[in-house]
Amino acid sequence: MTADPRRALIVRACSRGGAGGSPTAVVLDGGPFTAEERRAVPVACGTSHAVFVSARDGRASLRFFTAKGELPACGHGTVAALAVLADRSGLPEYRTTLHAGGRSFAGRAVRRAGAFEARFDPGPVTLRETTASERDLVLPLFPAPAGPPVVAFVGRPRMLIPVPSRAGLAAVSPDLGRLRRACDRLGLLGCYLNTVPTAEGRTAARMIGGPPCRRSVR
Q1: Residue, of 216 and 196, whose pLDDT is higher
Q2: Prior bond of 212 cis (ω within 30°)
Q3: What is the DSSP string of 100-155?
Q4: Contact call for residues 101 and 155 (beta carbons, < 8 A)
Q5: Is residue 67 a contact partner of residue 43, using CB atoms and an 8 Å limit?
Q6: DSSP string for 52-81
Q7: Per residue in 138-151, pLDDT tens?
Q8: Where does residue 101 fall: left (phi above 0), alpha (psi -120 to 50 degrees), or beta otherwise?
Q9: Exposed, middle or buried by CB within 10 Å (0-12, 13-18, 19+), for 19?
Protein backbone atom coordinates (compact mmCIF):
# COMPACT_ATOMS: atom_id res chain seq x y z
CA MET A 1 0.00 0.00 0.00
CA THR A 2 1.29 3.45 -0.89
CA ALA A 3 0.62 6.81 0.76
CA ASP A 4 -1.89 8.06 -1.81
CA PRO A 5 -2.13 11.88 -1.66
CA ARG A 6 -5.70 11.61 -2.97
CA ARG A 7 -6.64 10.23 0.45
CA ALA A 8 -5.31 13.30 2.22
CA LEU A 9 -7.59 15.91 3.73
CA ILE A 10 -6.38 19.52 3.51
CA VAL A 11 -6.97 21.45 6.73
CA ARG A 12 -6.28 25.18 7.16
CA ALA A 13 -4.85 25.06 10.65
CA CYS A 14 -4.74 28.15 12.87
CA SER A 15 -7.01 30.29 10.69
CA ARG A 16 -8.58 33.46 12.02
CA GLY A 17 -12.17 34.38 11.29
CA GLY A 18 -12.31 31.65 8.68
CA ALA A 19 -9.41 33.13 6.70
CA GLY A 20 -5.70 32.44 6.41
CA GLY A 21 -4.19 29.50 8.23
CA SER A 22 -1.53 26.97 7.32
CA PRO A 23 -2.70 24.35 4.78
CA THR A 24 -1.86 20.92 6.19
CA ALA A 25 -2.31 17.51 4.56
CA VAL A 26 -3.83 14.99 6.99
CA VAL A 27 -3.64 11.28 6.16
CA LEU A 28 -5.42 8.71 8.30
CA ASP A 29 -2.59 6.20 8.31
CA GLY A 30 -3.69 2.97 6.68
CA GLY A 31 -0.51 1.08 5.97
CA PRO A 32 3.25 0.66 6.49
CA PHE A 33 4.27 3.62 4.35
CA THR A 34 7.92 4.26 3.64
CA ALA A 35 9.56 7.55 4.55
CA GLU A 36 9.86 8.33 0.84
CA GLU A 37 6.12 7.84 0.34
CA ARG A 38 5.36 10.08 3.32
CA ARG A 39 7.68 12.82 2.03
CA ALA A 40 5.90 12.72 -1.32
CA VAL A 41 2.48 13.59 0.16
CA PRO A 42 3.06 17.28 0.99
CA VAL A 43 4.67 17.75 -2.43
CA ALA A 44 1.67 16.24 -4.22
CA CYS A 45 -0.80 18.17 -2.04
CA GLY A 46 0.98 21.51 -2.37
CA THR A 47 1.41 21.91 1.40
CA SER A 48 4.55 22.54 3.41
CA HIS A 49 3.90 19.52 5.62
CA ALA A 50 1.70 16.48 6.20
CA VAL A 51 0.60 14.64 9.33
CA PHE A 52 -0.04 10.88 9.39
CA VAL A 53 -2.55 9.82 12.03
CA SER A 54 -2.96 6.35 13.53
CA ALA A 55 -5.90 6.32 15.95
CA ARG A 56 -6.86 3.41 18.18
CA ASP A 57 -8.50 2.87 21.59
CA GLY A 58 -8.80 6.55 22.46
CA ARG A 59 -5.19 7.34 21.48
CA ALA A 60 -3.70 8.81 18.33
CA SER A 61 -0.11 8.58 17.15
CA LEU A 62 1.10 11.41 14.91
CA ARG A 63 4.04 11.61 12.50
CA PHE A 64 4.92 14.78 10.64
CA PHE A 65 6.69 15.02 7.28
CA THR A 66 7.90 17.71 4.91
CA ALA A 67 9.43 17.08 1.52
CA LYS A 68 12.81 17.04 3.27
CA GLY A 69 12.03 14.48 5.95
CA GLU A 70 10.35 13.82 9.28
CA LEU A 71 9.75 16.50 11.93
CA PRO A 72 9.81 15.62 15.65
CA ALA A 73 6.86 17.95 16.31
CA CYS A 74 4.52 20.27 14.41
CA GLY A 75 1.94 22.56 16.01
CA HIS A 76 -0.09 23.15 12.86
CA GLY A 77 -0.03 19.43 12.09
CA THR A 78 -1.25 18.56 15.58
CA VAL A 79 -4.11 21.08 15.36
CA ALA A 80 -5.08 19.75 11.92
CA ALA A 81 -5.04 16.13 13.14
CA LEU A 82 -7.25 17.00 16.11
CA ALA A 83 -9.75 18.73 13.79
CA VAL A 84 -9.99 15.67 11.51
CA LEU A 85 -10.32 13.26 14.44
CA ALA A 86 -13.00 15.43 16.03
CA ASP A 87 -14.92 15.65 12.76
CA ARG A 88 -14.79 11.87 12.32
CA SER A 89 -16.00 11.31 15.88
CA GLY A 90 -19.20 13.31 15.32
CA LEU A 91 -18.95 14.61 18.89
CA PRO A 92 -19.43 18.29 19.80
CA GLU A 93 -16.36 17.99 22.02
CA TYR A 94 -13.61 15.49 21.31
CA ARG A 95 -10.81 14.48 23.67
CA THR A 96 -7.95 12.06 23.12
CA THR A 97 -4.40 11.23 24.14
CA LEU A 98 -1.84 12.07 21.48
CA HIS A 99 1.58 10.52 21.04
CA ALA A 100 4.24 12.35 19.01
CA GLY A 101 7.89 13.21 19.36
CA GLY A 102 8.45 10.60 22.05
CA ARG A 103 5.85 11.96 24.48
CA SER A 104 2.15 11.55 25.25
CA PHE A 105 -0.13 14.52 25.89
CA ALA A 106 -3.80 15.47 25.99
CA GLY A 107 -5.62 16.90 22.97
CA ARG A 108 -9.08 18.48 22.73
CA ALA A 109 -11.22 19.89 19.92
CA VAL A 110 -14.60 21.62 20.11
CA ARG A 111 -16.90 22.10 17.12
CA ARG A 112 -17.76 25.78 16.60
CA ALA A 113 -19.71 27.19 13.62
CA GLY A 114 -18.50 24.68 11.05
CA ALA A 115 -14.91 24.68 12.27
CA PHE A 116 -12.96 23.29 15.23
CA GLU A 117 -11.14 24.95 18.08
CA ALA A 118 -8.30 22.61 18.98
CA ARG A 119 -5.95 22.71 21.96
CA PHE A 120 -3.05 20.58 23.14
CA ASP A 121 -0.10 20.76 25.49
CA PRO A 122 2.92 21.75 23.34
CA GLY A 123 5.40 20.58 25.95
CA PRO A 124 8.38 22.45 27.34
CA VAL A 125 10.00 25.28 25.38
CA THR A 126 13.74 25.80 25.81
CA LEU A 127 15.61 28.96 24.84
CA ARG A 128 19.23 29.84 24.17
CA GLU A 129 21.14 32.85 22.94
CA THR A 130 21.87 33.10 19.23
CA THR A 131 25.37 32.33 17.99
CA ALA A 132 27.50 34.77 16.01
CA SER A 133 27.01 32.64 12.87
CA GLU A 134 23.22 32.70 13.28
CA ARG A 135 23.18 36.47 13.71
CA ASP A 136 25.54 37.04 10.78
CA LEU A 137 23.53 34.90 8.36
CA VAL A 138 19.95 35.74 9.40
CA LEU A 139 19.71 39.25 10.87
CA PRO A 140 20.94 41.13 7.75
CA LEU A 141 17.82 39.81 5.97
CA PHE A 142 15.50 41.71 8.35
CA PRO A 143 15.16 45.25 9.73
CA ALA A 144 17.03 45.94 12.98
CA PRO A 145 15.36 43.89 15.76
CA ALA A 146 13.66 45.59 18.71
CA GLY A 147 15.58 43.41 21.15
CA PRO A 148 18.00 40.50 21.28
CA PRO A 149 16.89 37.51 19.19
CA VAL A 150 16.91 34.05 20.72
CA VAL A 151 16.60 30.48 19.46
CA ALA A 152 13.61 28.49 20.77
CA PHE A 153 13.22 24.71 20.74
CA VAL A 154 9.79 23.09 20.38
CA GLY A 155 10.74 20.09 18.33
CA ARG A 156 13.02 21.85 15.82
CA PRO A 157 14.77 25.15 16.62
CA ARG A 158 13.60 28.45 15.21
CA MET A 159 14.90 31.99 15.70
CA LEU A 160 12.64 34.46 17.51
CA ILE A 161 13.16 38.04 16.37
CA PRO A 162 11.30 40.93 18.10
CA VAL A 163 10.07 43.83 15.94
CA PRO A 164 8.77 47.19 17.24
CA SER A 165 5.29 47.38 15.68
CA ARG A 166 2.55 45.59 13.74
CA ALA A 167 3.19 47.86 10.76
CA GLY A 168 6.83 46.86 10.77
CA LEU A 169 5.87 43.21 11.09
CA ALA A 170 3.54 43.43 8.08
CA ALA A 171 6.19 45.20 6.01
CA VAL A 172 8.89 42.57 6.49
CA SER A 173 9.77 41.01 3.12
CA PRO A 174 13.11 39.19 3.21
CA ASP A 175 14.84 37.42 0.35
CA LEU A 176 13.22 34.01 0.87
CA GLY A 177 15.85 32.16 -1.12
CA ARG A 178 18.68 33.55 1.02
CA LEU A 179 16.68 32.93 4.18
CA ARG A 180 16.00 29.33 3.26
CA ARG A 181 19.66 28.70 2.51
CA ALA A 182 20.64 30.28 5.84
CA CYS A 183 18.07 28.17 7.74
CA ASP A 184 19.22 25.01 5.97
CA ARG A 185 22.84 25.75 6.85
CA LEU A 186 22.03 26.53 10.49
CA GLY A 187 19.48 23.74 11.00
CA LEU A 188 16.68 26.21 11.79
CA LEU A 189 13.03 25.58 11.01
CA GLY A 190 12.65 29.27 10.21
CA CYS A 191 12.28 32.67 11.85
CA TYR A 192 9.38 33.72 14.06
CA LEU A 193 9.01 37.50 14.13
CA ASN A 194 6.89 38.97 16.89
CA THR A 195 5.92 42.43 18.08
CA VAL A 196 6.87 43.58 21.56
CA PRO A 197 3.99 42.55 23.89
CA THR A 198 1.58 45.29 24.90
CA ALA A 199 0.72 46.07 28.52
CA GLU A 200 -2.18 43.60 28.13
CA GLY A 201 0.21 40.89 26.95
CA ARG A 202 -0.97 40.87 23.31
CA THR A 203 1.44 40.32 20.43
CA ALA A 204 1.36 39.63 16.70
CA ALA A 205 3.72 37.23 14.95
CA ARG A 206 4.78 35.83 11.60
CA MET A 207 6.60 32.59 10.82
CA ILE A 208 8.86 33.08 7.78
CA GLY A 209 11.26 30.82 5.97
CA GLY A 210 12.67 27.40 6.58
CA PRO A 211 12.65 24.13 4.63
CA PRO A 212 10.47 24.22 2.62
CA CYS A 213 10.11 28.02 2.58
CA ARG A 214 6.77 29.14 3.87
CA ARG A 215 5.09 32.24 5.19
CA SER A 216 2.19 32.44 7.61
CA VAL A 217 0.55 35.20 9.62
CA ARG A 218 -1.15 34.79 12.98
Answers
A1: 196
A2: yes
A3: ETTEEEEEEEEEETTEEEEEE-----EEEEPPHHHHHHHGGGSSPPSS--EEEEES
A4: yes
A5: yes
A6: EEEEETTEEEEEEE-SS-EES--HHHHHHH
A7: 999 999 999 999 99
A8: left
A9: exposed
Domains with residue ranges and CATH for the chain: 5-120 (3.10.310.10), 126-217 (3.10.310.10)
Q: What is the rounded distance in angstroms from the CA atom of residue 109 to the CA atom of residue 186?
A: 35
Residue 73 to residue 102: CA distance in whole angstroms: 9
Average pLDDT, the chain: 87
Contact 45, 56 (CB under 8 A): no
| Rounded Cα gap, residues 141 and 128, in angstroms | 21
pTM of the model: 0.74
Residue of 218 and 35 predicted with greater confidence:
35
Q: Residue 1 pLDDT more than 50?
A: no
- Taking residue 202's Cβ as centre, other Cβ atoms within 10 Å add up to 8
Strand order in the sheet with 191-195: 126-129, 150-154, 156-163, 191-195, 205-208, 215-217
Model confidence band, residue 32 (pLDDT cutoffs 50, 70, 90)? confident
Q: Which residues contact 162 (CB under 8 A, 6 or more apart)?
A: 145, 146, 147, 149, 193, 194, 195, 196
